[in-house]
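Task card 7
Instruction: Convert sequence to structure tokens.
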Amino acid sequence: MSGKTSVLVLAANPKDTPALRLDQEVREIQIGLLRSRRKGFHIRQDWAVRPRDIRRALLEHRPSIVHFCGHGSGEEGLILEDDHGTSQPVSSSAVAGLFSLFSNQIKCVVLNACFSESQARAIASHVEHVVGMSREIEDRAAIEFAMGFYDAVAAGETYESAFHFGCNAIELAGLRGQHTPILMCKGSALPLVGEPTPSVSATTATEQTRSARGDLSVKSLNDLYAAGWGVIDVMRRLEQIDYDNVAGLDKSSAGDYEQWATIAENNPDGYSFIVDGAGQVVGYWHFEALPEELFTKALCGELEDSEISIDNVILPCTPGELDLYFIIFAIERNFRGFKANRLLLGALLDRLEEFAQAGIHIRKICANAFTPEGVGMCKSLGMSYRQQHRRMGLIFQVAQADLNGLSRTRPHIVKGAKRPSL
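Output:
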């Protein structure tokens, strides 16, 4: 075995989880590596792995590459099996701690499991190259990624190049999810996502940005569903925009994508999106109607977004008056400007007018402005600065009686307003 690269494939599909074609994935990995003319790979397989099985396999086989295929559950961890064959989550810290003990030996880890980004980030503190999945990935797409990745490894490509071959394999197969895999490189500040960035001149890059900005359009959540997005895909994309826009943002203040996915499924009218010419979400706003206690807490700058849940928001479905809390108004850096701001603000006024026509009127609006665009939106609505949030952001507010600017342009929005005479 001297001179060969050892590859350890670990598989787990507990009996209380959806069935996956792990046998096909492992077979394709083996075919890709063994068909190489370099003949430099030694492959080991361990199935139905329990936590202690991983430790034993690493000690016995001493691999350079570790591939895990199965299920993931985000922050809860990778899903292995217990002694009864049912699910046993293993946390990011536990997995990372184990791999840290083999950091001088393992060169690459592939976590081909849904929502395994957290574990990939943790392991990347100790291993040079780690692949994880930023969201849910379909079984077929996971298999295609593995095929593309190991075909490239077998051909002598670097792990970074193999990652891009894997992402491209998903797209070549006509499947969604080519942007789901992420590659974490030890010591790198940012992960590589989806596909390689093409080498272009500064002039070409500027022209591409202008073109994309010129193709901006407003979409609803249902529009995104129709275009093939899943609610988790959307929420993960918004999470990425949030963290890119707001320095120092964390889960305790922002909440997480699973929390917002549940809310969005029940209140799609609380969102509006800007989409570029490639169909990518590049900006959005989000509001929720809150009960009096939570709204008062928001006005005082004491409400954390992580406290908002489907159980404590008011769904706009019957005539009446609501208090709206604006959670965020954010746009990607490359798309900021008059057009994006105008599109999002127009979408907001359209939504409020739709509410008004259904007899749903806005009594008060509160916003925590994290971004310059958010501050601009507040001022456009005639909102006044109230105070700083206790952790981050600026609290703005406006009451129905002060929505004079809106009553001139959108008279239906404000209850009791009359159209100006011509």
